[in-house]
Amino acid sequence: MPNHCFNKLTISGLRESVDEFIKDRLDENCNIDFNLVHPMPKALEDVHTGWYELNGREVRLWREDRTTGHKTPVESDEVRALQMLYGVTNPRDWKVNNWGTKWNAYDHGDMDRGNHGLEHWAEFDFTTAWGPPKKWLQDLNKACPRLFLQLEFTVEGGQSMGSFAFEPLDDIDFHTIREHNLSLKEDK
Questions:
Q1: What's the predicted TM-score (pTM) here?
Q2: CATH number for the 4-33+105-187 domain, one of 3.30.420.360, 3.40.50.2000, 3.30.70.1270, 3.90.740.10?
Q3: What does the pLDDT read at residue 129?
């Protein structure tokens, strides 16, 4: 069982950019889904790792059909192919390498939204295993270059806490917001 990491993601930018994030980067329940930013390859989805006896033979990797439950070993040729294509042979390692955590986000809280002048924001609470999804956040920054991203996190048991912030890669929106906010101050 992992230590749970409690995360609060705040995104901010112009309304259109925040709305686009909500439409394109959240699941149908408005929850964070790492696959909507950096999808796990289909070839790894039904691969399991560990020790399992299959037809009298111990295997370390096997596929399990989701509908029938039928298990088949992943043979050495496929293991080499997965390693060459993805750098890993199983979903857990792929997720750690590409999201920074072994599971997708879970235990989602309600989304909160608001604005201050032209700057709109949304906050999302979710949990991850072991630590924050920093690698996923880096990919999110590239996928949503007009948003400011901040992730605050705490690992249960007080093991660690902190935050990451990513400035927009495309700063056009923030120049517009800053100019608007400055003009509001000058009007007072």
A1: 0.84
A2: 3.30.70.1270
A3: 94
